[in-house]
Specification:
This protein is an alpha+beta fold and about 150 residues long. The protein has a four-stranded antiparallel beta sheet with strand order 3-4-5-11. Strands 7-8-9 form a three-stranded antiparallel beta sheet. It has a two-stranded antiparallel ribbon with strand order 1-2. Strand 8 and strand 9 form a beta hairpin. The chain is globular, with a radius of gyration of 18 Å. The N terminus is likely disordered.
């Protein structure tokens, strides 16, 4: 009896590791060089695909995925803990600018924490109403969204 394995790529990646399939290793499509995921705004890797964010200081570029859910009335440190609890992290300022440009409709018209500090007692945030970024005291209670980064 002969069995043939058929692999099809889906926009939902559930594993970030290599899987053995028969005598060959299968690398999930999101981790293959040159892979282009679903369209911006489409379901992808357990969230919503936001686009490509450029690497900083020699780091590689990455696919940015907005995680479902939102934290409300959180200080900066509580926002970071919330983001980790849903399997992500707070977006950087650059990532928030990309989220505003590509997925503004996924946010309330309000202010959201970034993971970028602004001195010893402040951190940056993004206003998803008019698009500005400003810093506030880390004890301020604001909204939070989480992101995941997938290497290209």
């Amino acid at each position: 009896m002969s069995h043939t394995a058929s692999l099809t790529a889906t926009p939902f990646i559930t594993s970030t590791t290599t899987t053995d399939v028969g005598s060959q290793s299968f690398i999930p499509p999101a981790f293959q060089p040159g892979f282009i995921p679903a369209a911006i705004g489409a379901a992808f890797a357990g969230g919503i695909y936001a686009g490509i964010i450029r690497g900083v200081d020699g780091s590689p570029d990455q696919h940015l995925v907005l995680v479902e859910g939102e934290g409300v009335d959180l200080s900066w440190s509580a926002a970071g803990a919330w983001a980790e609890s849903v399997g992500g992290s707070l977006p950087t300022r650059a990532e928030q600018a990309l989220l505003f440009a590509n997925l503004k409709d996924q946010f309330k018209s309000d202010w959201y924490w970034s993971g970028t500090q602004a001195g010893p007692s402040h951190a940056w945030g993004q206003d998803f109403d008019y698009g500005g970024q400003n810093d506030d005291h880390r004890s301020y209670e604001g909204r939070a969204r989480a992101v995941r980064r997938l290497p290209i």
